[in-house]
Structures are given as structure tokens and as C-alpha cells.
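Example for tutorial group B:
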């Protein structure tokens, strides 16, 4: 079972930036970030395959950038121009050979007015 270790997150003012990172214990086929705000369903933020193909939610396109360091099995999410509506718990996800999905423990991102 792949293990995921998340880092980053925290409190930032609107317009600020944060960077999330997630390291997998071994190479996987795809990694990404999802988020869940209070009272809402978990939603996709961005995903990236080991080949570099990305899928980014419209709500963050142009503000968030996902990247993958295959040498370290680590995915990064650079979040710029943050808005209060970006406040949520962000979860790292890894797809392992199309067999199963693994989730990180979640990291809180809070954007103040």
C-alpha cells in the first residue's frame, strides 16, 4: 500500500500564495489534489500523471499549478492569488496502477479576507 506524506498548507490572506507537497512511498501512475470545504463534497483540484498530463479544475485554472517530481515521487501544488473560497481541507491522492486510490491525511488551507 502506498503511503502519502503531505506538507504545506496553513493560513494566508486573500491574494497570497501557498505550496502543498505530497510524497509517495513509491512511484505511482498519477497523483493529485482534492479539497473539501465544510458542508460540501470533496472536489477535484488538479491531477497529474507520471507522463505529465494534467487536469485542473476550472475554479483554480490560471491560479494553481500542479507539478510532479518523478525522481522523488512528489507532487506539488503551487497556489497563487488565493481566495477565501479556496478555504478547505486539501487531500493528496495517488492512483496505483489503476488498481486503487490512496489518500493522504489532509492539510488545512485557510484564506482570510
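The residue assignment follows.
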Amino acid at each position: 500500500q502506498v503511503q502519502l506524506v503531505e506538507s504545506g498548507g496553513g493560513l494566508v490572506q486573500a491574494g497570497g500564495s501557498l505550496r502543498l507537497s505530497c510524497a509517495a512511498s513509491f512511484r505511482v501512475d498519477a497523483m493529485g489534489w482534492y479539497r473539501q470545504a465544510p458542508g460540501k463534497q470533496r472536489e477535484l483540484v488538479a491531477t497529474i500523471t507520471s507522463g505529465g498530463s494534467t487536469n485542473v479544475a476550472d475554479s483554480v485554472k490560471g491560479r494553481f499549478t500542479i507539478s510532479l517530481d518523478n525522481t522523488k515521487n512528489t507532487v506539488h501544488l503551487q497556489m497563487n492569488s488565493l481566495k477565501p473560497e479556496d478555504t478547505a481541507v486539501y487531500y493528496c491522492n495517488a492512483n496505483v496502477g489503476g488498481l486503487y486510490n490512496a489518500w493522504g491525511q489532509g492539510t488545512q488551507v485557510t484564506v482570510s479576507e
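The first strand starts at residue 4 and ends at 7. Compare this with the pattern of hydrophobic and polar residues in the output above.
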